[in-house]
Specification:
Elements lengths: L3 H16 L1 E2 L9 H7 L10 E2 L2 E2 L5 H17 L7 E4 L5 H12 L5 E3 L18 H4 L1 E2 L13 H11 L3 E4 L10 H11 L2 E5 L4 H5 L12 E5 L10 E6 L3 H5 L4 H13 L5 H14 L2 H23 L3 E2 L8 E5 H4 L4 H7 L6 H10 L2 E2 L1 E3 L13 E5 L1 H5 L4 H17 L4 H10 L5
Helix pairs in contact: 2-11, 3-11, 4-10, 6-7, 12-17
This protein binds D-serine.
């Protein structure tokens, strides 16, 4: 690059990514092909509209690209064009979620998602999000004892509030969602079932997480996270949605109209190219192996952390993600008590201590957290990125040991972290 200042920052970030253990469950290492597509000349092109109906000239290859990316997106999830529409233009997950509400829920009507501090997302109706200003948010929570979804309680709330849409799919929920139960609740109250599969889309494509496509009216995902593609959003609309058809809503057209011109201007053709690349990658047999290994790794890491005495929210994981209640798990470690002057350490302290040793996690609230979001009780971890590096169960046991040494014994493990990373270099 001619711009040395930016080039040096890119190089520094490559080194950081290579030399740290990345346990953030929503991050991953996309392939060189995904990066090439993102950095391609498609970045230069304006293409407002949809294939064969654009507002700018010169779109013959963008048209081909968008059609191919849509076909690949359907194929990656085993879908047929006659059953599902797909929109590959959303800039990312948040605009995709907004587009779905705009398409299907009149302003001022009710939406229902999991409360943010229990594992939901800002755009599922959190009070500071525009989604709770334009619509009335009636959130559900997790069961306090099991820290899992309580379908009877969700049904009770849905019957009471009559939301127009119910969102299933979260950012910090380690268990598998029962989409059939959500479908029944939605049918009973006449709500659309929207699945936000951003976190587990790669697991669905890889066949290790139940498919929501049997049950949902509309499904969105980001293309990064477990899917390992570019930062971008994709929306799938069920042409056979009974609730849409009964209401006379053409769900595919409504979603397309909400994305453009409703909310967005020119789509990012380079992102669309990169979605196309990753949807082809996700349809390969080796991606199934990858998805299987993600879950195997998460289960191994969870079991080892439990052996070291950490309390895991909901008792463990069935997915790529683990939520650790560090505040209660570390309260008996006497050295930590002495150093912090109180029982246990917070998620923020745990995250800082791990980062000093090259282990990257994010602080996170746990269900019914007594602490504040910026200084919560938990840390969230996941295995998609380490699995991409080729790490398996043996390495997960080592990672759990390193985490325990940092958080429970205050040991410096930075050399072990660097040595482990050096054995699994990235392609960048
Ligand atoms: N920020 C994402 C995550 O980390 O889960 C959700 O959008």
């Amino acid at each position: 690059m001619k711009d040395k200042e930016i080039e040096n920052l890119i190089k520094a970030e490559i080194k950081r990514q290579n030399e740290t253990i990345n346990l953030i469950p929503s991050e991953n290492f996309a392939s060189l092909d995904v990066h090439k597509a993102l950095g391609s000349v498609f970045n230069n092109k304006y293409c407002e509209g949809y294939p064969k109906a654009r507002y700018y000239g010169g779109n013959e290859f963008v048209d081909e690209l968008e059609i191919l990316t849509k076909e690949r997106s359907l194929k990656a999830f085993g879908l047929k064009e006659e059953d599902w529409g797909v929109n590959v233009q959303p800039y990312s997950g948040s605009p995709a979620n907004l587009a779905i509400y705009v398409a299907l829920v009149p302003l001022g009507e009710k939406i229902m998602g999991l409360q943010l501090d229990m594992g939901g997302h800002l755009t599922h109706g959190h009070k500071v999000s525009f989604t709770a200003k334009a619509w009335v948010s009636t959130p559900y929570t997790l069961n306090k004892e099991t820290e899992e979804l309580d379908y009877d309680d969700i049904r009770r709330l849905a019957v009471e509030n009559k939301p127009k849409i119910i969102v299933a799919g979260y950012t910090a929920y380690p268990k598998i969602i029962d989409f059939e139960k959500f479908r029944k609740i939605c049918d009973e109250v006449g709500a659309y079932l929207m699945v936000d599969m951003s976190h587990f889309a790669g697991l669905v494509a890889g066949g290790v997480y139940p498919t929501p496509f049997k049950y949902a009216d509309v499904i969105m995902t980001t293309a990064h996270k477990t899917l390992r593609g570019p930062r971008a959003g994709v929306i799938f609309s069920n042409r056979k949605s009974e609730i849409a058809n009964r209401a006379g809503v053409d769900i595919v057209k409504a979603i397309d109209k909400a994305v453009f011109p409703g909310l967005q201007g020119g789509p990012h053709a380079n992102q669309i190219a990169a979605i196309g690349v990753v949807m082809e990658e996700a349809a390969r047999p080796e991606f199934k192996e990858y998805a299987k290994q993600i879950v195997l790794n998460a289960k191994t890491l969870a079991a080892e952390l439990k052996n070291f005495g950490f309390r895991l929210v909901a008792g463990g994981t069935e997915t790529h993600l683990i939520l650790v209640d560090v505040a209660s798990s570390t309260h008996s470690a006497s050295s930590l008590q002495a150093s912090s002057g109180r029982e246990g350490i917070s998620g923020a302290e745990a995250s800082d201590q791990l980062e000093k040793n090259g282990i990257i996690v994010n602080k996170n609230t746990i269900p019914y957290d007594a602490r504040k979001p910026m200084d919560p009780s938990g840390i969230r971890m996941g295995t998609p990125a380490l699995t991409t590096r080729g790490m398996k169960e043996g390495e997960m046991k080592l990672v759990a040991k390193l985490i325990a040494e940092v958080l429970l014994e205050k040991k410096d493990v930075s050399t072990e972290v660097r040595n482990l990373c050096a054995k699994f270099p990235l392609d960048y």
